[in-house]
Amino acid sequence: MHRIPAAIIMYLLMLYTRCVCDSEPPNHNDPMWDFIVVGGGVAGCVVADILSASGRKTLLLESGPPGHATHGGKDVPASFAPYEAAYKRNLTIFDVPGEYHSIAWKMPQYNQPSTPWAYQANVLGGGGVINGALTMVPPSTDFDALASFNWSYSDIEPHFKQILSYMQAVNVPSANGLRYLEAPSEVLRRAFSFLNMTSMPLNEIPEKRHNTYNYPPVTAVEGQRVSTCLRFLPHEEARPNFKLITDAVVTRVVLGNAPGRADAVSFTRTATNTSELATLSPSGRAVLTAGALNTPRLLMLSGIGPEEELLKLKAAGLAPPEDGWVFSEGVGAGLSDHVYLRMKFALRGFKNYNYASIPNSSVHQYMQSLSGPLAQYGPVLAGYLASPYSGGVSDMEVFMEASDECVAEHCRSDTFDVFLMLLSPNSNTSLTLNIVNQSVQVAPRNWADLYLQHPRDRHVLRWGIERMVTAMLGTYGDDLELIEPPAATAVEYDLLLNSHNDSHMEGNHWAQTCALGICADPQTLQVQGTENVHVADASLMPYQLSSHPMLTVAAMARKAAQEILTSSGIAACESNPQCHAEGMRGQCCPSFDAVMLSCCAMA
Ligand SMILES: Cc1cc2nc3c(=O)[nH]c(=O)nc-3n(C[C@H](O)[C@H](O)[C@H](O)COP(=O)(O)OP(=O)(O)OC[C@H]3O[C@@H](n4cnc5c(N)ncnc54)[C@H](O)[C@@H]3O)c2cc1C
């Protein structure tokens, strides 16, 4: 065996270090990508940041248009027009927290056509620019079941901290530091007091949230929405190895000749309806972050999934060549969501704030000072209950909206909604394809299984209805009118529990469709049976957490991206042995920005 001289080894190491950490800016016209990230939502922007920070050529394809004005979004609220000349705010509906109510379910152009029954973002920013922005740190115990995968809370905690340091969760979003809609929050506060609940900042000790309440933490700064894409989307000028294409609907990951190996990603430009192929370099990787409904759909369309679903596509003439199929039963094997239930009350002397018809005074106030009700998202107070079935941890969130979003002429000004959200539900189903006129949609395989199928889920929600009606009546007596439920009787409680329709109860917290350890390898994030196709979004969550998911999705995406870098040998500077040995972390990461402080701090 020949021995390689030490000088040559050192030279090769130096070249390796240079090409990983200190490479020349790649040629933009070079069609080979090291990473192609599919979907610029909550997870996708974080993933694109981490992957491109390694210096490798990274392409982000997003089906929707830009959302935030700073990203080139154009959808300015119509009511802003009279004030724009005076205040020159240049904000879109995605920048204004109070516009949340006018987006979801009401603007089909921003919903994915593949899920007409759910509101799934079709805009750069994803769920992060259309959601209610409640930003909750989950209890560490939510991750206990993932410890053997190295996804325990202590494994993921640094990523929560990094995300939170850029996405501050505040409970006073208004720029002037004042809280608005205090009268409505007082209504629920008194009911919580009736239940002997105490006030505690909701992210302070997530494990001890039960029997506490407070103002909900949201992502906003100076009265404007903050999303992961606003914070993490790389700037192409500052990072020339990164490129973003919006209005680019990915149609499939193209598997090549080697089994389970992707060669390219095909996409259609919305503006021209033309198809293009983005090619992967020989060691390149496709990373899917299209959301928990669209990621498994794209995998199946690519020929990666359960045989039953691939055969369905074949029968419709929509499957890729059969000899490249990867049977991966874990794709779409689970599907879960948080389930909501809405109660409606009226209170003598109460005056609601209706986000469906925002008064001009609020618009003016917002344009003038980025303050007022439009700087808030909607929920005014949230509390956490522990049912007798919970083992002493919170298993129900209760929050109140000051608005009843009434638009008809018989609107009442004294009504308001109280929502119950079942935390950690046990019910779930799987995902299936529905092919309608050659268009491929996804849907829950069995709606009846998805929500409240598990007896414990029904018991907890039924208990929650009774508990909150009792608290409201106990607090307000004859001043309170029950609307939903219309009476405080067991019959009406049961009717409310059973009267849900699909959309009414959707939490839009979809998860579990390419779960860690079932569909995606916990270390490499590779989809079972593939070589270079990875998943890094809400699909990875193997069950519903006991809190709102956005922050967790972002933290998981950050960890997933780092695992992808490490396990694929395309090491980030942080894990490059040469950089590390020589204490060169600062110098060898010129393209790393502040988000990658962990890499660059130890110069
Ligand atoms: C109305 C609503 C309210 C919510 N409220 C809250 C809340 O208050 N707090 C909270 O924590 N969570 C909330 N959520 C949930 C949270 O937003 C999601 O859990 C989170 O967005 C999931 O992140 P993701 O990256 O997996 O998917 P997304 O954020 O949905 O990102 C997926 C991205 O992929 C793009 N995409 C999809 N298909 C394709 C394709 N074929 N080609 C290219 N791009 C594609 C989409 O346009 C989107 O940008 C809410 C969700 C909704 C819908």
Commentary on this structure:
With 603 residues, the protein is α/β, with parallel strands linked by helices. The chain has a domain at 1-30 and 572-603. 28% of the residues lie in helices and 19% in strands. Residues 38-44, 61-64, 104, 112, 119-123, 126-128, 130-134, 249-250, 289-292, 294, 298, 508-509, 537-538, 548-550, 553 line the site of flavin-adenine dinucleotide.
- Helix- and strand-based class? alpha/beta
Strand percent estimate: 15-25%
Number of helices: 18
Rg, nearest Å: 25 Å
The coarse overall form would be globular
Q: How do the strands and helices of this protein lay out in sequence?
A:
Layout: H1 6-21, E1 32-38, H2 42-53, E2 58-61, H3 81-87, H4 100-103, H5 127-130, H6 153-166, E3 169-170, H7 182-194, E4 198-199, E5 212-214, E6 218-221, E7 224-225, H8 228-232, E8 242-245, E9 248-255, E10 262-269, E11 274-288, H9 294-301, E12 304-305, H10 307-315, E13 326-327, E14 339-347, H11 360-369, E15 379-385, E16 396-401, E17 415-422, E18 431-436, E19 439-444, H12 447-450, H13 455-476, E20 480-484, H14 490-498, H15 502-505, E21 533-535, H16 550-567, H17 577-581, H18 597-600
Parallel strand pairs: 1-2, 1-11, 2-8, 4-5, 11-21, 12-13
Antiparallel strand pairs: 3-6, 5-15, 6-7, 9-10, 10-11, 14-17, 14-20, 15-16, 16-17, 18-19
Helix pairs in contact: 2-16, 6-16, 7-13, 13-14
Bound molecules: flavin-adenine dinucleotide.
Provide keyphrases for this structure.
603 residues; alpha/beta; seven-stranded mixed beta sheet; 18 helices; 21 strands; 28% helix; disordered N terminus; disordered C terminus
